[in-house]
Specification:
Elements lengths: L3 E3 L5 E3 L6 E3 L11 E3 L1 H15 L2 H16 L17 E4 L5 E3 H7 L1 E6 L6 H19 L2 E7 L3 H11 L5 E3 L4 H5 L3 E3 L2 H9 L4 H5 L8 E3 L1 E6 L5 E7 L8 H5 L3
Parallel strand pairs: 7-8, 8-9
Antiparallel strand pairs: 1-2, 3-4, 5-6, 5-9, 7-12, 10-11, 12-13
Helix pairs in contact: 1-4
Length: about 250
């Protein structure tokens, strides 16, 4: 996975670079340790490259929005460890069928990743990392599911463009994200900023009325087959994500 930079016009620009590798413990099948790029190293590379190429006044808008979101206390409002996870039924981009949390939990422990959309390079780098680890996760008896407020067609583009094999579910209006305590409404200033860099949220989300501009913060949950939250972490700063090893250690 090449380091990337947000191009400011709706796409990625690959930037050559060297990534540190982090070993994973052996899988249950006894295979050798796997080497995977550290996720936060990849995300920090995106941030560094972006700061070198994007105008300071544009960067300041995003930085201010992150600080405002942090100040809102949203990180402390997410569903905590030990809570009962809300149930949901959402459409899967791969099969185009409705998938329920009960059906998923009947198979195994569930890792739930809330992400903003395919326009977010941090989100997609994280999902690509999880795709590389998906066989390891499945060997441990768990499933991975990614949930975004994008319309089904946009999630389908996400699956196809990034060769994802785990369920990618559409959460209109970010209602499921809100049930986990991890949704917020984009401010007017950020709405204008997104439009200026050609991120058309109403087009990506469809008309969801007052909830059209709802987005999830970067949040990860692990839910047991009994429906209890085993792991809960969220960051108001979209540039920060937990290392997959933290989640795999819970399984």
């Amino acid at each position: 996975m090449d380091p990337k930079v947000w191009g400011g016009g709706g796409g990625y620009l690959p930037i050559p670079g060297k990534l540190n590798l982090m070993p994973l413990r052996p899988t249950q099948s006894g295979t050798d340790d796997l080497l995977v790029p550290r996720l936060q190293d990849q995300l920090d590379t995106i941030t560094t490259n972006t700061r070198g190429l994007v105008q300071p006044e544009r960067l300041a808008i995003t930085d201010e929005a992150v600080q405002d979101l942090l100040a809102s206390g949203i990180e402390s409002q997410i569903l905590p460890v030990g809570a009962t996870a809300p149930s949901f039924t959402l459409q899967d981009a791969l099969t185009k069928k409705s998938v329920s949390s009960a059906d998923l939990l009947a198979v195994g422990t569930l890792v739930i990743k809330l992400f903003r959309g395919r326009w977010c390079p941090y989100c997609m780098t994280e999902l690509e990392t999880w795709q590389s680890l998906y066989p390891t996760l499945r060997e441990r008896g768990a499933l991975f599911v990614a949930i975004s407020p994008q319309m089904l067609r946009q999630n389908d583009f996400t699956v196809q463009q990034h060769n994802l094999t785990f369920p990618v579910l559409s959460d209109p209006g970010a209602h499921v994200a809100a049930s986990f305590g991890a949704a917020y409404s984009v401010t007017d200033k950020m709405r204008s900023h997104y439009r200026s860099i050609l991120i058309n949220i109403p087009f990506l989300h469809g008309d969801q009325g007052a909830d059209t501009w709802q987005l999830p913060i970067a949040a990860t949950f692990v839910v047991s087959r009994e429906g209890k939250v085993l792991y809960s972490e969220a960051h108001a700063d979209h540039r920060v994500r937990p290392e997959p090893q933290e989640i795999l250690a819970v399984l």
